[in-house]
Each structure stands twice: as C-alpha cells, then as structure tokens.
TrEMBL record:
<dbReference type="InterPro" id="IPR003265">
    <property type="entry name" value="HhH-GPD_domain"/>
</dbReference>
<protein>
    <recommendedName>
        <fullName>DNA-3-methyladenine glycosylase II</fullName>
        <ecNumber>3.2.2.21</ecNumber>
    </recommendedName>
</protein>
<dbReference type="InterPro" id="IPR011257">
    <property type="entry name" value="DNA_glycosylase"/>
</dbReference>
<keyword id="KW-0227">DNA damage</keyword>
<dbReference type="Pfam" id="PF00730">
    <property type="entry name" value="HhH-GPD"/>
</dbReference>
<feature type="domain" description="HhH-GPD">
    <location>
        <begin position="62"/>
        <end position="214"/>
    </location>
</feature>
<dbReference type="InterPro" id="IPR051912">
    <property type="entry name" value="Alkylbase_DNA_Glycosylase/TA"/>
</dbReference>
<keyword id="KW-0234">DNA repair</keyword>
C-alpha cells in the first residue's frame, strides 16, 4: 500500500520535508471537500525523504514481491557485504555472496544493472532537479527491475515532486474508492477525474489518501 514495499528507514540521516506542504494543504482543503476533512485528521505528519538515490532504488528492488519484514532481513544481510553501499562497491560483490544474503538470481541481476546505470552515467542524477517527472521516469524504467510504479514512488518519496499521481498504486485506487465513491469500484479515468481538483499537488493528496487507509506514514 502506498509505497510500503519500498519503505526505507534511517536513524542517522535527518529527514528532509517539502517546502510546499502547507501551501498544498491549503489549496487542497479549498478545492476538495474530502481533503478538507482528511488533512486535519493527521496533525503535523508530513512527507519525508532520507538517504541517497542509489540506496533508495536498491532497496526498492530488494523489497519487490516479498513482505516488508522479509525485505528488511535480506537488506540487512546484503548491506553488510560492503562498508558503504555505492554503485562501485556493488559491482565488486560476488554473485554467490549476494545470493547467500537471500537475493534471488533475478534481483542480483537487477542490482548489478542498477549499479551499472549509476556508475556509467546513464542516469543523470545531477540533472534530475531540472528535469520533468516523465523524463526521470523514462530514465528509471530503462533500468531492469524498475517499472513505472517504482519510478513514481521514487519521485514522491525521494525527489518529493509535488504533482505525481500514481494510478498503478492499489492503495491510491482503493482510497479514492472509499473516500469518494462509497467503496464502489473505481477506474483509472474515475481517479483522474477526482485528481483534477488536486493539481498541482497530486502527491500531497495521494499521501493523505494513503493515510486514510493506514495512519502510519511511510518513510522512504
């Protein structure tokens, strides 16, 4: 739900929060009756980002198709294989050691491909701030093991882009169904229609929709 499988926690890095949050909340409360009710329910909770881009994406790959608990166990073992998780360090790891940490052969391939993209400059990390969302998504989905949903979660939780609407996210669709359609099934076009009132702050509205289903915020 809402980025659960790519959840990343860190005690050592201070979280960064988006400057636009208060402005976005005021906009949403004015434009949308559901948001007007939802936003006050969650007090001062706010979207946060920590860590670096490579580690965040590596964790999203490790966490695919397994439970949060299992992903944490594998990640803990994997991260012990090297002093610092950098693309160069991952490229030096032995496949057998990565498999022994609990990674499938496919995930090992994905992590190596991710490290290659970062080390050879195929992803333009330093340019991302100036690039639009779709251009960044295009770069990320070219990496094996990263689909559009993962790229959108990265835009929301790592780059904190304000206007991401992840229509492939089950939590978002379920939350729109519950909050706007009394639990009736919702199509992507229904969701898009609801989200017209959210623009240019679809990220913030999505975050509150997730909170309506699960009050504990996801820290990426």
């Amino acid at each position: 739900m809402g980025g659960r499988s790519v959840s990343v926690a860190s005690k050592t890095v201070s979280p960064v929060t988006p400057e636009y949050w208060a402005l976005a909340c005021a906009h949403l409360a004015k434009k949308d009756r559901v948001m007007k009710k939802l936003i006050p329910q969650f007090g001062n909770a706010i979207l946060e980002t920590r860590g670096d881009a490579f580690v965040t994406l590596a964790r999203s790959i490790v966490g695919q198709q397994i439970s949060v608990k299992a992903a944490q166990t594998v990640w803990d073992k994997f991260s012990l294989l090297t002093k610092k998780l950098t693309p160069a360090a991952v490229l030096k790891l032995k496949v057998d050691d990565m498999r022994a940490a609990g990674l499938s052969a496919r995930k090992v391939e994905y992590l190596v491909d991710l490290a290659l993209h970062f080390s050879n400059g195929t992803v333009h990390v330093k340019d991302w701030q100036a690039m639009d969302d779709e251009a960044i998504i295009e770069e990320l989905v070219a990496i094996r093991g990263i689909g559009r949903w993962t790229a959108e979660m990265f835009l929301i939780f790592h780059l904190m882009r304000p206007n991401v609407l992840p229509l492939d996210d089950v939590g978002l669709i379920n939350g729109i169904s519950r909050n706007y359609f009394s639990g009736e099934p919702v199509s992507r076009s229904d969701a898009r229609e609801v989200a017209q009132a959210w623009s240019p702050y679809c990220t913030v509205a999505t975050w509150y929709i997730w909170r309506s289903l699960d009050p504990v915020p996801v820290a990426y």
